[in-house]
Structures are given as C-alpha cells and as structure tokens.
C-alpha cells in the first residue's frame, strides 16, 4: 500500500486519483501511436499523486521511458521527493523519475524533455486570482489559485506551442464554474496543433476533464 507524504496545507482529494484512472484508460485504450519512448509529465504535481497513481496502475507503462514531475512551490518539493523515492522502489528503478522545482509556464520543455512523445496529466489550481476569497496561508493559496497572468487557457496554449514537432496528448482537470460557457469553443479556435474534447465527471458536476491530442 503506497503511503503518501503530504503537507498539512494541501491534501489531495479523489479528483487526483480520478484523473490518474482516466489517464490510464486514455493512455491504454486510445493512444496506440504512443507505442514507446513516452515521457509521462505530471505538470502541477503537488505531492506527485497523479503521476504516481498512473505509474502504479498503468499496464502500458512499458511504453513510458521517463516520469517527469514539475511543481512550482518549493514547500511541496520535499513531500514529492519522498513519494518519488517510494515509487522508485515500487517500480524497481525501471522508470527514471525526475522532479523539477519550476514554473510550468517557464519550464524549458524543448531542452529538458528530449523525448518526442509527451503524455500530460494535469490537475492545476482550480481558481482564478481574486474570484474567490483567498486563503491566508500562502502555500494553500498557491495550490488552489492561479497566479497573476496564469490561467487554464494558458496551459493549453503552452502545450499547443510545443506540440510540433513533439507528439502530445493528455488530460487536464478543471472546475467548470471557473470558466464561461464559451471557454471550450473559444479555446478550440486558438489551438493550432492539438485538438480537445471534454468529458463530464458524472456526479461531481463541478469538475470536468479536457482531453487533448496533437
Ligand atoms: C490543485 S494542486 C494539485 C496538486 C496535485 N496535482 C494533486 O492532484 O494533488 C495544484 C498544484 O500546482 C502547483 N502550481 C501552481 N502554479 C504552478 C505553476 N505555475 N507551475 C507549476 N506548479 C504550479 C501548486 O503549488 C499545487 O501544488
């Protein structure tokens, strides 16, 4: 049984394990062209739960060449490192795992991810700055709120930007009530290299998944 180390200021919920489960289904059933040498990229990784759950349960993990985890908040990093150490043992060192303490929007994808195929699993902050009352705890705030100039749309534009010549696919989880009804159609018009489609999350009406593929 995997024992997660997590900070007091942010504990993952079943949204994270749901995303990992959907990631396994998407990767195994729909992405046959991602046949080998794929980088799994957990882009707003927190304690690493999404990527870790994916790698623990994905039957197709032989196709994964490397797991890359990225987290901006330095106060999250030691927790994620402890979890990745445990995962290395579980995977018997078969998949190299790297953790970067960097900002997703500034991360140099081209230089640091040399693989030509990237599979993204992303559970980013849910809320836009200033829309909701923000927590006083700075770490909690970083986990739940996008920073200034950051947004769900910008995540997709960043992925779109690197999707040629690389092949990309993945899933982003988001709060439907934080975007307007035209969000998805408008986003579609701006994307050049990836196509997107939305899947509702059954009983959890506020959280949907956006799948994408280049
Ligand atoms: C909603 S939490 C999700 C964490 C984890 N993926 C999970 O499912 O539990 C969002 C995470 O993204 C991190 N984060 C926020 N902005 C970021 C950015 N620009 N680049 C990288 N990570 C960021 C936060 O510190 C937080 O750990």
Describe the structure in your own words.
The mean pLDDT is 93. 34% of the residues lie in helices and 20% in strands. Strand 2 (64-70), helix 3 and strand 3 (97-100) form a beta-alpha-beta unit. The chain starts with 13 loop residues before the first helix and ends with a strand. The longest helix is centred in the N-terminal third of the chain and has 17 residues, at 14-30. The protein has helices spanning 14-30, 49-57, 74-90, 109-112, 138-144, 152-161, 183-190, and strands at residues 38-42, 64-70, 97-100, 117-122, 167-175, 195-199, 207-213. It has a 7-stranded mixed beta sheet with strand order 3-2-1-4-5-7-6, with helices on one face. It is globular. The structure holds S-adenosylmethionine (SAM). The site of S-adenosylmethionine has 21 residues, from helix 2 and helix 5.
Keywords:
214 residues, alpha/beta, Rossmann fold, seven-stranded mixed β-sheet, globular, binds S-adenosylmethionine
Look at the structure and name the CATH superfamily: Vaccinia Virus protein VP39
Give the CATH level 1 class: Alpha Beta
Q: What ligands can be seen in this structure?
A: S-adenosylmethionine
* Radius of gyration using CA atoms only: 16 Å
Sheet with the most strands: spatial strand order: 3-2-1-4-5-7-6
Unreliable stretches: none
What structural class do you assign from the helix and strand content?
alpha/beta
First-to-last CA distance: 35 Å
Please name the CATH topology: Rossmann fold
Oligomeric state of shown chains: single chain
User: What sequence of helices (H) and strands (E) makes up the elements?
Assistant: HEHEHEHEHHEHEE
Strand percentage lies at 15-25%
- Indicate the overall shape: globular
């Amino acid at each position: 049984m995997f024992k997660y180390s997590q900070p007091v200021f942010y504990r993952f919920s079943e949204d994270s394990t749901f995303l990992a489960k959907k990631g396994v289904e998407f990767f195994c059933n729909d992405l046959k062209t991602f046949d080998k040498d794929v980088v799994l990229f957990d882009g707003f990784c927190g304690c690493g739960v999404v990527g870790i759950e994916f790698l623990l349960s994905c039957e197709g993990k032989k196709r994964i060449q490397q797991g890359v985890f990225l987290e901006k908040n330095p106060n999250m990093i030691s927790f994620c490192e402890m979890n990745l150490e445990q995962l290395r043992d579980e995977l018997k060192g078969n998949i190299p795992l790297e953790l970067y303490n960097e900002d997703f929007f500034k991360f140099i994808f081209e230089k640091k991810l040399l693989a030509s195929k990237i599979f993204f699993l992303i559970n980013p902050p849910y809320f836009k700055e200033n829309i909701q009352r923000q927590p006083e705890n700075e770490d909690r705030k970083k986990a739940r709120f996008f920073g200034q100039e950051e947004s769900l749309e910008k995540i997709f534009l960043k992925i779109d930007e690197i999707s040629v010549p690389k092949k990309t696919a993945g899933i982003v989880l988001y709060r439907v009530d934080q975007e307007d009804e035209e969000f998805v159609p408008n986003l579609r018009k701006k994307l050049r290299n990836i196509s997107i489609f939305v899947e509702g999350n059954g009983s959890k009406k506020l959280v949907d998944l956006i799948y994408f593929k280049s």
